[in-house]
Design a protein that fits this description.
It is a single chain. By secondary structure, the chain is of the alpha+beta class. The protein has four domains: 194 residues, ATP-grasp fold, A domain (Dna Ligase, domain 1), CATH 3.30.1490.20; 90 residues, no CATH class; 154 residues, 2-Layer Sandwich (D-amino Acid Aminotransferase, Chain A, domain 1), CATH 3.30.470; 138 residues, Phosphohistidine domain (Glucose Oxidase, domain 1, 3-Layer(bba) Sandwich), CATH 3.50.30. 38% of the residues lie in helices and 22% in strands. The chain contains 22 helices and 26 strands. The strands form seven sheets. A six-stranded antiparallel β-sheet has the order 11-10-9-8-14-15. It has a six-stranded mixed β-sheet with strand order 18-22-21-20-19-23. β20, α20 and β21 form a beta-alpha-beta unit.
Length: 599
């Protein structure tokens, strides 16, 4: 959907907006777009290149902000893949059925591998390719095959395991085809252009999804499609692009769309306005999936993190100057922070009236980091020496520099609260690799521009005096919830989670979103305020306590009833009966003692 200046997007100067319409129209037909192309087209470009590419183009134009070279692969290329390739539907179903029968979905090896489904899809796609080479069966258009598989997905009564199989079928189909020659050449040329602009050979790039609506003001999607890091070479970039195309139909993305439709249907039934449901079915239909991809030069960082132009837990922006910046930082690549693999350092930066920066730091536990895998490509998760795990990731000067950059980006977006990702390289240069309007607080301040609401559902105060605190952590999303704790080893155990349960895990990832949507609360052993668990919980409006760092205790709570509400700090507690015996009810609270206040 096109955005206007009032939506908070940076203003384009008169020279840009005055470009001839014909020139912009020509650019909309290109398979590959530069940042300058996107800015020249204007807000309508977001339909073609998605939120991530659109925002990347905009921040690259902000004075004083250093952003890596990138190219946007237009959604036109995605639709050409679907319309110009064919698959043998019967053979694809046969390969997937046979592959599924050979998997013990309850096995520890399956549930302990977060990439199991992704690797299974690629293995089955390779098998399908091999069988297709000598097969003369009937082939149908790839888009027709996809639509046949996903038909009725949004309202299907099937369980999560059956829905996952539909997703696997579609992904195997996409990965089994050869890319159209023009698409393959366009992606290859895009990679080579990035290398030329960087003045380097074989530049590592990140291949990231940029779906329609993703990283927009209203929808964060929070990594529903896949990201591939440290991709080197034009051929590998093409493979990464095809992987991303398949990820548009992974289970978490399809379920996100399904739930959006079901939510709208529920609202339509409550209000009697059926147009709400009809609009949602059109906007969110899986058959209407569209994907752009961002191919961006990777920076090999020493330090990475995320930075918000507000306090993530309350939306507070500091003084009337809106100068407060909240930073999560750790070592290595930023995926360790956003993926909740570590508990990062937490920093708050704000300005005194005399302009002097004040930095408040809280030490995290950064025992792991993600680094380039120079031998095999991609990335590896490695241990951080204990003496380094307890060092500050950012110096005070670096924190101040990050805060100034975030404020500049927020100002360019009309003062909106921005969610950014940054990294610092070995030459101590600060790079901003992503920026997007924050979803939760911008929406609240649109409705209540002068108020910060500090209260949500609370536990009965009479019960607080007898509560026994069991676990404490960081309150990443405010509120209270009650239910049975369901500890998940991986997203493959989502069928354990019923509506109203408390979802617990060592960390959440985008594959767990279907369970998070129906949970009453989230508990995560690791992660910071800008990890997946935190961002998704805030978007869904459910409470979350993260960074607990007591995984064994968290596991032991599986299948026990808990009450997640308001206590003296972010924690999980157990109620104690008057006779001293322990009851089944538990309480968990996710933010400081609340009090409504105006600003």
């Amino acid at each position: 959907m096109a955005k206007t200046q009032s939506s908070g997007k940076p203003r384009q100067d008169d020279a840009t907006s005055a470009k001839a319409p014909a020139a912009a129209d020509d650019k909309t037909k290109q398979l590959i777009l530069t940042g300058a192309d996107i800015v020249a087209i204007g807000a309508e470009a977001e339909i073609l290149v998605g939120g991530k590419n659109y925002n990347t183009a905009l921040i690259s134009q902000i004075s004083g902000i250093r952003a890596p070279q990138f190219r946007a692969v237009s959604s036109l290329a995605f639709h050409r893949v679907l319309d110009e390739t064919k698959v043998n539907a019967a053979l694809i179903r046969e390969v997937v059925d046979e592959g599924y029968r050979g998997v013990n979905w309850n096995g520890e090896d399956v549930n302990s591998d977060p990439d199991f489904v992704k690797n299974l899809v690629r293995k089955l796609a390779d098998e399908a390719r091999a069988k297709l080479a000598g097969n003369t069966g009937t082939a149908i258009k790839l888009r027709t095959f996809i639509n046949n598989v996903v038909e009725g997905f949004a309202t299907s009564p099937e369980g999560i395991d059956q829905l996952r199989k539909r997703s696997v079928l579609v992904q195997v189909g996409i990965l089994s085809v050869d890319m159209p020659a023009e698409v393959r050449e366009a992606v290859s040329d895009a990679y080579n252009e990035i290398c030329r602009e960087a003045g380097l050979e074989d530049v590592p790039v990140a291949v990231r999804s940029s779906a329609a609506g993703e990283d927009s003001r209203k929808k964060a999607f929070a990594g529903l499609q896949d990201t591939y890091l440290n991709i080197v070479g034009a051929h590998q970039a093409v493979i990464g692009y095809q992987w991303d195309c398949a990820s548009a139909y992974n289970l978490r993305s399809m379920t996100y769309r399904r739930e959006a439709i079901l939510d709208a249907v529920g609202l339509a039934e409550r209000t009697g306005d059926n147009t709400i449901a009809e609009r949602a079915k059109q906007e969110w239909a899986i058959e209407n999936t569209s994907l752009s991809v961002c191919v961006m030069r990777m920076i090999n960082p020493v330090i990475s993190g995320t930075a918000f132009a507000a306090d993530t837990a309350t939306g507070c922006r500091g003084t009337t100057r809106n100068d407060l910046v909240s930073i999560d930082a750790s070592f290595g690549l930023g995926e360790a922070v956003v993926g909740g693999m570590v508990t990062p350092d937490k920093l708050f930066v704000f300005q005194r009236d005399d302009g002097v920066e004040v930095v408040i730091r809280n030490m995290g536990y950064k025992d792991k980091k993600i680094v380039y895998n120079d031998k095999e490509g991609g990335t590896s998760l490695v241990k951080v020496p204990e003496e380094q795990a307890y060092r500050w990731a950012l110096s005070l000067a670096q924190a101040e520099e990050v805060a100034r950059g975030v404020r500049a980006i927020s100002k360019a977006y009309g003062g909106m609260i921005m969610d950014t990702e940054f990294c610092i390289d070995q030459a101590d240069r600060l790079w901003f690799v992503q920026a997007r309007p924050e979803t939760r607080w911008n929406a609240e301040f649109d409705l209540h521009p002068h108020t910060i609401f500090m209260r949500r559902m609370e536990v009965d105060k009479k019960a607080l005096g007898s509560a026994e605190v069991i676990l404490e952590g960081n309150g990443a999303s405010r509120g209270a919830g009650q239910g049975v704790v369901r500890f998940l080893r991986s997203a493959l155990e989502l069928n354990k989670v019923q509506k109203g349960d408390i979802l617990a895990a060592e960390r959440t990832d985008p594959d767990m979103v279907p369970g998070m949507r129906i949970a009453s609360a989230i508990l995560a052993d690791a992660g910071g305020d800008t990890s997946h668990a935190a961002i998704t919980s805030r978007e869904l409006g459910i409470p979350a306590v993260i960074g607990i760092q007591h995984a064994e205790i968290l596991r032991s709570l599986d299948s026990q009833e808990r009450d997640r509400g308001r206590l003296p700090g972010p924690c999980l507690s157990r109620a104690v009966a008057p006779d001293g015996s322990r009851a089944a009810k538990w309480t968990c609270r996710s933010s400081p003692p609340p009090r409504p206040r105006s600003v």
